[in-house]
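ok so I'm stuck.
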Amino acid sequence: MVSTPESHPSDGGLHDTGAAREPLTLSSDAADAFVVMPAFNEARGIADVVRHVLERFPRVVVVDDGSRDATAGEARAAGAQVVRHPVNLGQGAALQTGMRWALASGARWIVTFDSDGQHDADDAVRMVTLARERDLDVVFGSRFLGATEGMPASRRLLLRAALVFQRLSTGMRLSDVHNGLRVLSREAASRIELRQNRMAHASEFVSQVAALGLRFDEAPVTIRYSEYSLAKGQSSLGAIHILFDLLLARLGR
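replied:
not stuck anymore, here's the structure
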């Protein structure tokens, strides 16, 4: 399904804090792609995630969103470039910072990738290939077209509810709207401007793709839930806050 509805960033307290090391094994389709990885207090597992991604992609930028632990140092030691927010601004703001950094650094494709170990870099490579071959602006990863491991029933219910809301508000018939694994072309990334700083950015992202008339499709991916990722993930109360934020945003138009 394809839809056809149609200089470096300023300092701002951000600091580029290290150069990425060259990985040993790369996908040729990922040579001109940057992986943007927002992170907040992820010191426990960020190094493993960065090393996993660098096996397939040459450039990873971790946006340390005001972490109070060693996230930045662990990510840098694993081979990522690190950009830091001095205070926690939320995942949406971290993604926007990372996309601007990647665009200013010459990215042709941008992959957004969660830092908690749920995603698979091989899925991301396949998504870049799909976008390149079919001249798509955006590819959304979908766990409901692919597979999940260890997803609680309550999480599935919340995701389905978010899907219904998104279809009613945008008309886009996606199967998964709150998946952090996405691929954007340079053109798409330069036109998308996330204003919802926190977790509501995922629905806002979909809304902007619809409003801008960008060409998109979905690709099956596998999401692996662990005790750690579930603890870091969105709570039911947080989901209510997301809905409230989105309703306020729509009323404010």
